[in-house]
Amino acid sequence: MPQLTSSTGVLAHLTYEQRFSHLIVAVFLAGVLQLIFGLLELSRFFSLIPRTAHMGFLNGLAIMMFLSQKTTFQVCDASARQLDMRFGECEKQGRLEWMSLHDPKFWTTAFIVAMTAFVMHFFPRVPRVGRLLPPTLVVAVLAVAIEFGLNRPLLGYNVRTIGETSPLAGSLPSLRLPQFHHVQDWPAVFWCATSLAAVGIFESIMTIQAVVDLTKERRLTRSVCRRECVAQGVGNVVCGVFGAMGGCSMIGQSTGNVLNGARHRLSAVVCGLATFAVVVFASPVMERVPVACLTGILLVIIAHTFHWPSLRLVWHLRITDAITLVLVTSLAAAINLAVAVIAGVIWQSLVNGWTSGQHLRVASTTLETIEVEMRPALLTQTVTARVYRLHGVLLFSSVVAFREFFDIETDPPVVVLDLADTRLADFSAAAALKEIALRFADADKTLVLRHLDPQAMDLLLGHDIGWIATGPHVVMKRGPPQNEAREEATVVATPRSTRSAFHAM
């Protein structure tokens, strides 16, 4: 996904205000794409995501959240400190450096992080009070009290706060329509919008699944996914209209709400309204919260997001499933969540296609005496035919093995292919049947297909060329005759619902 606002991204030649304008357009378009995705109910395709990809998604997201906390232990470099730059400006310009282990600020920051994580984990277990007060509120008050009541007055090792990172604008939002006419790089904007929409939808669906796994109160349904996509699309369109940052269902916040006792969407509504009220009317108070406190809260959420059983499970999975888990985890942490999940689905689809093709086999090859109607004289004659009974799925990955089942040179003039226990999966199956039929016809022999299911009949008649229905059968005629004795070579297919009947030339 292109970094539209980065000073080293694809729009580096533009000013920051122009780059930000491009981002707002991308957010608006992402909302439109998500809205369309929800209205068309395309979320039903999320059933293609394997469980290993879901676990890898959670692990990759947890790793991303963990790595993003590194700025808590970073400071502006020496030249930026001389200019008295805020941390947010230093981060935007890439002028950061790590704290020294000999710096007391490092240890006071680490103490607040550890204290916050400890209280977040154990406070909900306190009888009565633990269920009454949310631990996030408790640790925020405690961290502010320690920072401004003990650390700064007595020790002087200031821990960076939210206000010292970047000031909060405590004002109501104003209408700021996307400036489409100022866009100078539409491909970058569309690619960013598509990536934002995909990541948002993936994370939202995965968040719902994670909440379902935590609460065990309901199951993930198509209507829930559709409603989530539509609501998210509307929200991002509104964000684009007001010049705000887009968003999606946050697995960290949702996990935190569930851990605090939330069970329904009312908690998210209250959280949103409370956040709006705090930012607009109490931003000076929020600016005093140490960033280390937020890091401690996120560490607990990260610990609940990461699928810890997967560390042990990966050694028991099949190698292909283990690769899916590791692949999605790695790509989610290194690139983005959408690319990771799509790569996992593609890999698993290739694996399933290959393994399904390896199960095709010939159960038996026997000789049977059957009655054959000879054309054009329409005389009935008893002949001996070889019967191949096929088991499994005939698809693109099993065509090579399918070709090797037949011995055309030694087979009798009539050969029967029994497909009662076989499923034709794709057009490659129909093409393989046609190829074998024509090879038999070239040898002046007839191939008879019997016991085809309705799906196979539809595949041959409706989605292939050259098959013709003759009564209850399907025949395929092959080009001009090679000699006068044989006027045409016919391949007969008998449905499972009809009595077996065979025609030979």
Automatic annotation (TrEMBL):
<protein>
    <recommendedName>
        <fullName>STAS domain-containing protein</fullName>
    </recommendedName>
</protein>
<dbReference type="InterPro" id="IPR002645">
    <property type="entry name" value="STAS_dom"/>
</dbReference>
<feature type="transmembrane region" description="Helical">
    <location>
        <begin position="20"/>
        <end position="40"/>
    </location>
</feature>
<dbReference type="GO" id="GO:0016020">
    <property type="term" value="C:membrane"/>
</dbReference>
<feature type="domain" description="STAS">
    <location>
        <begin position="387"/>
        <end position="460"/>
    </location>
</feature>
<feature type="transmembrane region" description="Helical">
    <location>
        <begin position="289"/>
        <end position="310"/>
    </location>
</feature>
<dbReference type="Pfam" id="PF00916">
    <property type="entry name" value="Sulfate_transp"/>
</dbReference>
<feature type="transmembrane region" description="Helical">
    <location>
        <begin position="188"/>
        <end position="212"/>
    </location>
</feature>
<keyword id="KW-0472">Membrane</keyword>
<keyword id="KW-0812">Transmembrane</keyword>
<feature type="transmembrane region" description="Helical">
    <location>
        <begin position="264"/>
        <end position="282"/>
    </location>
</feature>
<feature type="transmembrane region" description="Helical">
    <location>
        <begin position="52"/>
        <end position="69"/>
    </location>
</feature>
<keyword id="KW-1133">Transmembrane helix</keyword>
<dbReference type="InterPro" id="IPR052706">
    <property type="entry name" value="Membrane-Transporter-like"/>
</dbReference>
<dbReference type="InterPro" id="IPR036513">
    <property type="entry name" value="STAS_dom_sf"/>
</dbReference>
<feature type="transmembrane region" description="Helical">
    <location>
        <begin position="322"/>
        <end position="347"/>
    </location>
</feature>
<dbReference type="InterPro" id="IPR011547">
    <property type="entry name" value="SLC26A/SulP_dom"/>
</dbReference>
<feature type="transmembrane region" description="Helical">
    <location>
        <begin position="106"/>
        <end position="123"/>
    </location>
</feature>
<feature type="transmembrane region" description="Helical">
    <location>
        <begin position="233"/>
        <end position="252"/>
    </location>
</feature>
<feature type="transmembrane region" description="Helical">
    <location>
        <begin position="132"/>
        <end position="150"/>
    </location>
</feature>
